[in-house]
Design a protein that fits this description.
0% strand, single chain, elongated, 7 helices, mainly alpha, 70% helix
Length: 125
């Protein structure tokens, strides 16, 4: 029921967060600098997850985009399931979306690593 969906949604936060942090970390192979990526990633996650402003307050086009991306699964969706704003089939679909994003981010991270590791040169012994 609702408790199970809440637990699943909260547990999916870990692979979602990891996938985003890992992929953005791997971008440093191309940017050569993490100083700009880290605050940008943090701001994006905080804003589009509903952690700063509830997504319901965003303009419709931005709210739709936020729910389509993995960020809403990091705050808004678990919170909405917990307070029963999402329930039943809608909540189950939201959790399925979180799981799909977790898998997609894993594959994205894997693809980034495969490309990045070809650029890695290690000197020394």
């Amino acid at each position: 029921g609702q408790v199970g969906l809440t637990v699943m949604s909260v547990l999916l936060l870990v692979p979602l967060r990891f996938g985003i942090v890992y992929a953005s970390g791997l971008l440093t192979f191309w940017t050569k600098n993490y100083i700009g990526l880290h605050p940008g990633r943090t701001a994006l996650i905080t804003f589009l997850s509903g952690g700063l402003v509830p997504l319901a307050f965003l303009p419709e086009w931005l709210r739709v985009m936020a729910y389509a991306l993995p960020f809403a699964g990091m705050a808004a969706i678990p919170g909405m399931i917990y307070v029963e704003q999402l329930s039943g089939t809608t909540a189950a679909l939201a959790v399925a979306g979180q799981a799909a994003w977790a898998v997609a981010l894993w594959w994205l991270g894997r693809a980034f690593w495969n490309r990045a590791s070809r650029q890695l040169t290690v000197h020394g012994g």
